[in-house]
Design a protein that fits this description.
By secondary structure, the chain is mainly beta. The protein has helices at about 95-100, 145-150, 160-165, 230-235, 305; strands spanning about 25-30, 50, 60, 70, 75, 85, 95, 105-110, 120-125, 125-130, 130-135, 140-145, 155-160, 170, 175-180, 195-200, 205-210, 215-220, 230, 245-255, 255-270, 275-285, 300, 310-315, 320-325. The strands form three sheets. Strands 1, 3, 4, 6, 7, 8, 9, 12 and 13 form a nine-stranded mixed sheet that branches. A six-stranded mixed beta barrel has the order 17-18-23-19-22-21. Strands 2-11-10-5 form a four-stranded antiparallel sheet, with no helix packed on it.
Length: about 325
């Protein structure tokens, strides 16, 4: 879907993914008048990161292992405030106003969400998830009032780039597991191969190939519950709707509703693995209103494809591995 550059890049740093293609409503936490704008993204994560090698890398997780949301339960300032969506398609950390109050987070300033709404920025002493501890984390305030009808559980926040920025993060659908490691000590299995990973606006982008022997950058979006979506510019460039049987749909992505056509795709390749006969690929027929990444990005890869792999993200070294699942 084509991208608009009209929004302020300096403050609208919180790119939000499709969140499973569902109609998730999110509301800014209204800031008080005395708060002033602050930057909460530096491209490295706003918090100091440590990974305790003495603890199990596996984190508490609620996930159906397929296209559903990844829900984790961290401690915020040593307090359990509820479930968070873990999303590679979110460029920051978000928390509801109620959960921020329960954890004793302090209002630090304001920022703008991707849709332009001003919201409160909170700061916390610690964020703990499995072996990971983040200190000095900044959160944008976002309430998700109807999340339980979408995710099956009430979500009080979203974990994005800051959690992933300085760790090795494994997404393993066959084991229904998420694991976190220290990049300095992690060893990739000998049978696997690292692929280049590019980070733009805090989101992971990988080079992929698809039918017609085309190749391009795609966002690896754990918040997108479908297989693959092509931006409208890609659809037009390669005339992807010609002689393809499709049906119309609307999906939500990057905070905007987009009209798409849904239909089959001959093949799509992640890493060294080619996936044939994808039945429900998405082809955008109109621009998405806000996507602040590079103009040449071709689309999104979602959980229906990534769940076929053990996906290993290493943001700090700009690389990713796709290990085919045995299941």
């Amino acid at each position: 879907m084509a991208r608009s550059k009209a929004a302020s890049v300096s403050l609208c740093i919180l790119a939000l993914s499709s969140l499973l293609g569902s109609c998730v409503s999110m509301k800014a936490v209204k800031p008080s008048r005395e708060l002033r704008p602050v930057a909460i993204g530096d491209g490295k994560g706003s918090a100091r990161t440590t990974v305790d090698a003495g603890l199990s890398p596996q984190v508490e997780l609620d996930w159906d292992g397929g296209s559903g949301a990844l829900m984790v339960r961290p401690l915020i300032n040593d307090i359990d405030v509820g479930w968070f969506v873990l999303d590679t398609g979110a460029s920051g950390m978000l928390i509801s106003g109620k959960a921020a109050g329960e954890a004793g987070l302090l209002p630090l300033g304001t920022t703008r969400l991707q849709n332009g709404s001003a919201t409160t920025v909170f700061i916390g002493e610690s964020f703990q998830l499995g072996p990971l501890t983040l200190n000095g984390t900044k959160y944008a305030g976002v309430d998700i009032p109807h999340s339980s009808s979408v995710f099956g559980k009430k979500a009080v926040g979203i974990c994005g780039f800051d959690l992933l920025a300085q760790t090795v993060f494994e997404l393993d659908a066959s084991a229904r597991a998420v694991r976190i490691y220290d990049p300095a000590t992690y060893v990739l299995p000998e049978t696997a191969t690292w692929q280049p990973l590019e980070l733009h606006i805090g989101l992971a982008h990988a080079w992929c190939e698809f039918e017609g022997d085309h190749r391009g950058l795609f966002v690896l979006d754990a918040g997108y519950g479908e297989s693959v979506a092509f931006f409208d510019t890609t659809v037009e460039q390669f005339d992807m709707l010609a002689d393809r049987k499709t049906r119309g749909r609307w999906i939500v992505n990057f905070g905007a509703t987009t009209k798409i056509r849904e239909g089959p795709l001959d093949w799509f390749q992640l890493g060294q693995t080619r996936i044939d006969d994808i039945q429900r690929a998405h082809f955008a027929t109109q621009p998405v209103r806000i996507y602040l990444g590079p103009d040449d990005v071709m689309g999104l890869v979602g959980m229906k494809l990534m769940s076929r792999f053990r996906v290993v993200f290493d943001y700090s070294n700009n690389r990713v591995a796709f290990i085919p699942s045995e299941d």
